[in-house]
Write a structure and sequence with these properties.
The structure is a homodimer of 213-residue chains. With 213 residues, chain A is an alpha/beta fold. Helices cover 37% and strands 21% of the residues of chain A. The first copy, chain A, folds into two domains: 14-137, CBS-domain (Roll), CATH 3.10.580.10; 140-212, Histidine-containing Protein, Chain: A (2-Layer Sandwich).
Chain lengths: 213, 213
C-alpha cells in the first residue's frame, strides 16, 4: 500500500487530473468531496477515450461548428468529452480496508480489471494498493522463501513430530519430499505453504507411509 | 515509447517473469522466441489470477495431494497455474509500429483494455508504448499549447488572411474567438487544433460574418 495519497475533487479540471496521474506516475487517483469522503476514482483508462477519438469524428468538426454535434450519440463513451474529475470518474468505487487480505485485494483487482484500490478506513482514504503491490510478493528470494517454509513446517505444529517432510525452493516453486503417516497433516502443510507470499507452486513428492502408523 | 525493451522467452519461469515486471516497474513484458520474434506479452493482469486464488480452493489441497485436483475445471483462468512465460502470455499480441499515430495507439489501448503495446519494426520489438506515454501529451503547459495553436492558425495557411481568429488556452481548453467569412476554413482550423497534443477541448466562439464576404 502507498500511504502518500494524492486526491482530486469532483470539480478538478481534466488537465489537472491528468497531471496528477502522470506526474505522480499513478494508475488511479481517488476523487474526494469537501468532507474528504471517497466519491469516485479516475484512472488512466478514464482519460484514454479522449485521446482515442477517431480522426473521422474529428473531421466532423463542421457539425460542432454548426452546433449540431451530438456528442452523446457519436461517442459510446461520454468520458471522451468530460471536462472535470467528477465527469471522468468511475463510480461506485471498489475499495479495500487496512485489514483486507492481500489475496482478497488480488481477487478484487483481477476480477474488476482495476489497477488500483483505494484503502479506506473510517470513511477516509488512507492509502492506495496497486497490482504492483500485490505482485511484489514474488520479489522474495528462494532462500527467504525456503526459510519461511521450513519455519512453518517445523515450528508451527502443522506437521506432527513423527513426520519427516523436507523442502527445497527453486524459482519460487516449493518441492516437498519425505514421508508422512498423516495425510491430513500433509494437507494442512500444503495449504499453509501454498498461501505463503512468493510461492509460485508446490511440487508434492511426499510419500504417505501407512505402514509406519 | 520506451526504447529500452526488457523481454523474456517462452520458457522463462513464472518468478523470473514476475521479477522482470516488478523490478523494472513495467505493466507488460514482451515474450520473444530465439529469433527475437514477438510471440506474446505477459502483463500484470496475467500474473494476478495466481494471487487471487480463493482460500476455499487452497483448502482443497487435499485433492491435490490425492492427485485428483482438476485445475482446469476449478479455475476459470488457467493462468493461475501457469509456470512459464509461454503459459502466462496473452496472444495474439496487439502491436504498434514506429509510425503508428498516437491517436491510434490510444484507441488500441483503450478498446483492448491493455496498458502497453510492443512497438514492432521489421519483426523485431524496438520499443514499448504505454497508456502513460499517451497521456503525457497533457503535460504541455497552456502557454506552449497556445504557441502551437497560434502558430498553426497564423502560419500554416489553414485560415485565409482575411479571417481574424484569435485563441486563448486555459487548463488545456482552447477558446477560439473572432470572425470568419469561411466556415470551411474554420472547420479545418478546428480539426487541426483538436488534434493537437495537450488540447483537452475547444470552445468555439468564432462568428461567421457572411456580410463581409
Amino acid at each position: 500500500m502507498t500511504k502518500k495519497v494524492r486526491s482530486v475533487r469532483p470539480d478538478t479540471s481534466f488537465k489537472e487530473t491528468a497531471l496528477a496521474l502522470i506526474q505522480n506516475r499513478l494508475s488511479g487517483v481517488p476523487v474526494v468531496d469537501r468532507q474528504g469522503r471517497l466519491v469516485g476514482i479516475v484512472s488512466e483508462s478514464d482519460l484514454l477515450p479522449r485521446e482515442a477519438l477517431d480522426d473521422d469524428l474529428l473531421a466532423s468538426a463542421q457539425a460542432f461548428f454548426e452546433g449540431t454535434f451530438d456528442w452523446d450519440s457519436l461517442f459510446k463513451n461520454r468520458k471522451a468529452v468530460a471536462l472535470t474529475a467528477g465527469e471522468l470518474m468511475t463510480t461506485p468505487v471498489q475499495t479495500a480496508t487496512p485489514h483486507t487480505l492481500l489475496r482478497q485485494v488480488a481477487k478484487r483487482l483481477s476480477e474488476s480489471g482495476l489497477r488500483v484500490l483505494p484503502v479506506v478506513d473510517h470513511g477516509k482514504v488512507v492509502g492506495m494498493v496497486t497490482r504492483h503491490d500485490v505482485l511484489k510478493v514474488y520479489c522474495a528470494s528462494d532462500a527467504d522463501t525456503l526459510c519461511n517454509v521450513k519455519d512453518a513446517l517445523e515450528h508451527r505444529g502443522y506437521v506432527p513430530p513423527r513426520h519427516c517432510i523436507d523442502a527445497s525452493v527453486h524459482e519460487g516453486i516449493v518441492t516437498l519430499g519425505g514421508t508422512t503417516i498423516d495425510p491430513e497433516g500433509l494437507r494442512r502443510a500444503l495449504a499453509l505453504v501454498r498461501a505463503m507470499d512468493g510461492v509460485v507452486a508446490i511440487r508434492n513428492l511426499v510419500r504417505v507411509d501407512s505402514s509406519a502408523g
